[in-house]
# Entry
Amino acid sequence: MRREWSVAIAIGALAAALALVAPSYFSAENLRDIFLVNMPVLVAAIGTTLVILTGEIDISVGSAFAVCSVAAGVAAKAGMPTALAGLTACAVGAAAGAVNGALVAYAGIPSIVVTLAAMVALRDGLRWTTQGAWIADLPPRFQWLGVAQSTFPVVAGLASGLLVVAFAWAMRNLAAGRAVYATGSNAQAARLASIDTAFVKLAVFTAGGALTGLAALLNSVRFNQIPSNTGIGLEMKVIAAVVVGGAAITGGRGTFTGTVLGVMLLGAIGPALTFFGVSAQWERALQGAIILAAVTVDAARAGLSRTALVGA
Amino acid sequence: MAGLLLEAAHITKTFAGVHALRGVSFDLAAGEVHALVGENGAGKSTFIKIVTGAESADSGTLTVAGRAIHRMDPPTARALGVAAIYQNPALFPGLTVAENIALPLDGGRAFGRVDWRARRRNASQILKQVGAAIDPDREVGRLSMPERQLVEIAKAIGANARILIMDEPTASLTEREIGGLLEVVRRLRAAGAGVIYISHKLEEIFAVADRVTVLRDGESIATRPRGQIERGELVRLMIGRELTTMYPKRVVPLGDVALELRGVSNRTRGVRQISLTVRRGEIVGVAGLVGSGRTELAETLFGLTPPDEGDILVNGAAAAIASPAHAIRLGIGYVPEDRQRHGVIPAMSIAANTTLSNLAAVSSRGLIDRAAERRASTKYVEELRIRTPSVLDAVEGLSGGNQQKVALARWLSIQPAVLILDEPTQGIDIAAKAEIHEIMERLAEAGVAILMISSELPELLAMADRIAVMRRGAIAGIVSRSDATPDRVMALALGHAA
Ligand SMILES: Nc1ncnc2c1ncn2[C@@H]1O[C@H](COP(=O)(O)OP(=O)(O)OP(=O)(O)O)[C@@H](O)[C@H]1O
Ligand SMILES: [Mg+2]
# Structure
């Protein structure tokens, strides 16, 4: 729980500083913008949290996000209702995730290699199919999921909030949640305790893909065009948020609360720079520093005294 | 005092509120074997970690060869001639024996040239010193467990260890190999080294120790010369009460055949033509030397490496067991030998670990009932005397023996039709051992068929209805309880005509 507290305190400190120096940061408009920009990151991060909890990694999230966005747009333009277009995006994401998951779980290929291949293949495949063209002229009922532009943040906020709560609840209360943690903490022991670890891995990659599809939908409906090169670098944002939130990259440790806080901290810091009058160029560097701080604290804690890991 | 190699005074150590050591004093003379005994979680390994500098004490003093050490860390310890050997050898499996032995010797010169001939010469000389006939050019990954232990010792001596610490070095060895190891310990003592020897096997303590120190709940309760203490009193000092729980073997009427093997082979794992039956209520022991294929047989039965020949019948029906999950569905339970690596989920709580294989028992309508889970695991924490502040603590904070107990609790709690136990009491203290034997008897009475692999002959002789003795992957003979004698079993294991 310690990491969650440190990130929460960091967010609190940032908020306090902003309240003093730049209270306009807290205008409804600015907060809404920050939320809308980071919502796809949050939704995709739920999936990546699952994948990282099992000790694997998925770096094809950004490419899958682009493919899913285009799929949603094409489906909507073909006259499908928005719900169906959303399902299409999720199904495409789930299919890509399932292929990754199957290669990791049943062919035993390291996930970094599998998803690196997927990252390149999906991105280049998309470029080749679309010839770089953007999907334009999206039907109006697709925009803002068909609700008023002002209601959309509420709908999206409720949807992503519910999703996080549902996953956090399931991880604590369902056998499936135990299976995910056990697989990541000690796969061999989990197997001997009757957990089908290969299936668990297939399942988290598939779920991660579906969530990427959902993130793509929630992002696409905000614009009237879908660029075919969208989502570049999204996987790194997502992984960074999960790691800052306290999940161990080796698996078995991490919470959804941590991931939410990680997304909040990394998402809030960029716009804050502008308000502090610092060039936005520093955003990446600062995010990098936060990630480094997070993992260094972990390493120091593990090295200096093991006491801290157990918690007082 | 002159001749003291090590003197530790009033050492305390606290882990997040757990008092692992409270003012422990301990000394070691040259040419002495000083045993350290106590229940699981008494603080033995923690004390060792402080002497080797792996952990730092909260307070207390360490004096090595007359010099007060203010900050002990691993390089200092090594420079002072302190070397430790753990239950699981920490060797590099991809390197040769000579390379492993030489590693601590080359220290510091990252770009120095390696003198291969000197290395080999050194290695074989040291190996001879410990009485091990091992080719220095062999890859460590191909050595048996006792051979690896010997290489560990050679490595320690190669580093000119004056103080040799052995933390449960015999937990995975069988009697014959233990004899060899104790011989090496005596030889080291004769050469003037001091040895701190930790074991739960009291026979070894009485065979090799000059003095014994008892730890209980982090305190040193007593230090006695071997001649001035007998077994009963030692046990009393360790557990703080009389050990009344020495259960006699109970007579259980045997039921139908629960598990039958017909010519089961697994060539890749070296298991050959095993035919064996276990009836409901029966405890069948499996004896054999290290490397005789006992664990490989268990893993074959549990679907980890399916057999390539022969039939396995569970409750009379042929079963092609393809995976552990499949085996568990058929009602087979398996407590693996290496429980720290294969038995527990370190980051999860004790409660979650004990219920992991049978969450249904503590769930209602698919939801885990955490109160029920806590109750279920508390029962085993008490019965097996698992030393922990709370069942919600992560397993990784427990002592080695207590982690073993958690792994056992998971399977003891679910009453499978067939239970395979691989070294169920290795690394477990004497009081909990009696408790585990009692639970096994209870399971047998309830009709569970038990296959018990053990390297401890007395345990097999006391618990088993029949003992199957394995040698080189095959069954060398099956002896019934009434015919079983240590000599008979050993003769079969070694391949001497009995
Ligand atoms: N890293 C740690 N974090 C928290 N508690 C710890 C840690 N290491 C040890 N302890 C606690 O300190 C106590 C002593 O543990 P130690 O490993 O020294 O026992 P031991 O005598 O070696 O037992 P065993 O016979 O089971 O090996 C135990 O209660 C254990 O839970
Ligand atoms: Mg120990």
User: Anything to note?
Assistant: DSSP finds 13 helices and no strands in chain A. The radius of gyration of chain A is 20 Å. Residues 304-312 of chain A have pLDDT under 50 and may be disordered.
